[in-house]
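pasting for ref
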Amino acid sequence: MMMKFDLKVLFSMVASVATAFALWACSSSPEPQTEPAPAVAQADSVATPVVEKKAEPAIPASYKDIQFPEYKYVAPYPKDYRVEIAPGISGYIVSDRSLPLVNFTVYFEQPRVPLALKDEAASSMVGSMLRRGGGGGISAKALDDSLEFISAGITSSVGTFTSTFDIDCLSKDFANMLSLSKQVLTAPAFDKEQFEILRANYLTAYDRRYDTPAKVLSALRSKVNYAPNPRLWDANAADYKKVTIADLKRLAQGVYADSRIMFALSGDIDKDSAVTMLKEFFEGWNAAVAKTVKMGAKPVVQEPTPLTFVRKPGIYVVDKDITQANISMNQPFVRRPHADYYPAAVANFILGGGSFTSRLMNRVRSDEGLAYSVYSSVGNDYRDTAMVTIALQTKVESVEFALKLIREVVNEFAEQGPTEEELAQAKKSLIESLPSLFDSPEATAVIFAKGELLGKSYDHYLEYVKEINAVTADQVKAMVKKYFDMDKMTTSIVAPVSKLESIKPFTVIPQDSLEFR
């Protein structure tokens, strides 16, 4: 049987309970405190100090009104990191305990180019095989497995001026990696299976050397600017197929010996402990390498000779059926150190090196929409005379207009020079980019090691700021006239020849004749 509730009765009951609870709460509350108020302070009492609030700085009305403190940056000083292990063996140690990682790069100053074109293919393969082929009684497969197990790496390379090997590993494995690399690199094995894999890679790279317009342009630019030189030799497929392991062993002799040694060590390592480890590592290095060098062997390499320029201005074209013409304009520059480098660097920044602040970008891209990217650069080379460059991609139909517009921009800059604002902005940007060179311990150690090999002074990066700040508007103007003279430049273009009638005369260079042989 269901019970019926009268809502009025129910509400009355609830109200009675609430009233009773409220009366109980009031009766059980503590008595209010009746302590006397503190007396008014007498005249001789210590007064509470009044703290005045400083006025908050006003928020600028525009971002243009924001004031920043003067930028001051002092580059790290090489001497603070330099150590000498033994006569002819020195380097830089930059410690950083933030991560348990170590990078160790060793440079052997060993200038070398092959004596004969037939050795070019083998010479280009030597650097990779020194590591890939195993050595010191360790097979190539065992070496790969060992490195993979501890997430470490060893790389090797052989260049025109230096031969290099590099170790990347966890700091706890560094001592063992030193021992392993010395074992492998002082007695390379040249594993046959790895050799065949490497040769196949080189053959594939050769077959695809002109797959993109950019690769064709690079080859064309070298062909029309440089005189023949053994340093520029190009091996072809037939050359790679003829290479034997005996050729690699012959050309590898002495790669890591009898030379000036420079190293860059960075990461989670104590400097004093590192010096002790490296002294042990390099002790007897040349003696270990000498065991694998055949006594009385005939020389297989020669000292490299400087690159020289053909100096034949004009337009050179490789015919390629594409819609975007790839263009590069070039002129010989300087070999550093040279007094023109810094004012030319400032001039280049204003002309085309400063991205969206540059004149070329503003006129060619922003105003006319002729190119996604257009830029200029000045080469930075201590071994050879470098080149200046103006480069862009544009629709084939726009080539004539783009070249005309670039000429106008350069000529106007050469006649008028930079504005005060352009000069100040260029200097500021170049100087404030300096910290990016030292953005990691590895980068810092490597840049110091390479710098010493090139003959840079310890004060190089301190002088850099002074040199840039000293550049004048007249110097910038002179550099544009001297190094960006369009009439002295070669203009290399990759595009359909049939659509370039308006820029004649030009010389057509067949794609299959771009190699140096």
